[in-house]
Amino acid sequence: MIDSLSQRLVPDELWVLVEPLIPPAKERPQGGGRARTDPRAVFTAIVFVLTSGCAWRHLPPSFGVSVPTAHRTFTKWTEVGLWRQVHQAVLDELGGQGLIDWSRAVLDGASVRAKRGAA
């Protein structure tokens, strides 16, 4: 079930882009184990924590995802580069629709300390 908050955080259009990028669950060689938590629910819970600024331990149970599951999955997805892939997919989609105004883009550079001595 997707409630209105979940739908606002991760609309269907975003989920269509994200779902193929979610790494598949690893198969246990011995079989068994728990059923995998719904990836969309986990993604939505993570988006809630990241956009609201709440602590992981305050994740509302209404998302249907436990705090350890949400945090462990966030860590795993970070390690495999999911967030960079999602960012690129969203930029590609918006760019393909002509919805990005590149005239307003800003590039940032790092400052490097100048060396002393002769130029």
UniProtKB/TrEMBL annotation:
InterPro entries: IS402-like_dom, Transposase_6_like. Pfam families: DUF4096. Residues 11-87 form the Insertion element IS402-like domain. This is Insertion element IS402-like domain-containing protein. It comes from Saccharomonospora marina XMU15.
